[in-house]
Amino acid sequence: MSLVNLAHVCSHLQNASKARLGLTSIPCTKMLHILMLQLQRSGYVSSVTIGGPTPPPPSSLNPILDPSDDSVSSHIVQRPQPQPQSSDDAPAPQTPKQIPVAKRRLWVGLKYWNSEPVLYKMGLVSKPTRRVWMGFRDIDRLAKGDHSGYVRGLRGVGESMYVTTDQGIMEVRECAEKRTGGMLLCRVNGV
Questions:
Q1: Which position among 98, 158, 169, 189 has the lowest Cβ density within 10 Å, counted as fewest Cβ atoms?
Q2: pTM (2 decimals)?
Q3: Helix, strand, or coil here: 18?
């Protein structure tokens, strides 16, 4: 897991939301995919789609989460796409498995509310040279809004922090409920 790539993605998403972009792409890795699905589940982004170097068709940008399963690993239930009529000139859309791994991108749809970006600020907590590991007691303090070490707790409305654990990437409040610790990844502030 590269925290340098995560730092680039955090600044890219923050800049893209301030520039009022509706859709942006980031490198496709397992960690980033799971983190983006968590951001979608928390309501910071509208859609997460795996695609190639060109944007996916608009019909695949409105995926819905599977309501019967709470785990993010079930990914997304894709809406059926209409099949084109007999058009010999139009190439068939490629599925994510047909796109070479080096060219795969995650296409992230950004959300806005009253002309303000929902994802206002996103930054790393652990740095590549200083990784921050916390046990479940410290994570519980962060979820309640108290400081733990040099990390300040969650105080604002719409503020989230994500942790990588042995059970996957989770939000701090989920870690406090499940009583698990891990490495703090990033903090997200909404408007």
A1: 98
A2: 0.81
A3: helix
Please count the CA atoms within 13 angstroms of the CA of 17 that sit on its side-chain side.
25
Question: Distance (Å, rounded) from C-alpha 160 to C-alpha 51?
Answer: 27
The DSSP output letter for 138 is H
Please tell me the number of Cα atoms within 13 Å of 120 on its side-chain side: 11
Report phi then psi at 21, rounded to 5.
-80, 140
Q: What is the DSSP letter of 7?
A: H
Q: How many CB atoms lie within 10 A of CB 138?
A: 19
Question: What is the per-residue pLDDT across 53-96, written as a single tens digit (0 to 9) for each?
Answer: 888 887 777 655 554 455 444 444 444 444 555 555 555 556 66
* Distance separating alpha carbons of residues 166 and 48, to the nearest angstrom: 23
- Whether 38 shows a pLDDT value over 90: the answer reads yes
Identify the bridge partners of residue 122 per DSSP, sorted by sequence position: 188
Angular region, 23: left φ>0, alpha ψ -120 to 50, beta rest: beta
* Residue partners of 148: CB distance under 8 A and separation at least 6: 134, 138, 139, 141, 142
H/E element holding 186? Answer: strand 182-190
Residue partners of 129: CB distance under 8 A and separation at least 6 = none
Neighbouring CB atoms inside 10 A of 139's CB total: 27
Q: Which of 117, 111, 112, 170 is nearest to 139 (CA)?
A: 170
Residue 91 CA to residue 83 CA, distance in Å, equals: 12
